Amino acid sequence: MAKKAPRRTTSAEPPRVAIVWSRYNASVTEPMLDGAADEFTRRFGTGTGLTVIPAPGAFEVVALALAAADSGRFDGVAALGCIIKGETTHDHHLARAVAHGLVHVTLQTGIPTAFGVLTTNTAAQARARAGGKKGNKGAEAMSALLDTIAASQAVLGHASTPLTAVSTHGAVTAKPDKAKGRRR
Question: Which helix (H) or strand (E) holds 92?
Answer without folding.
Answer: helix 90-109
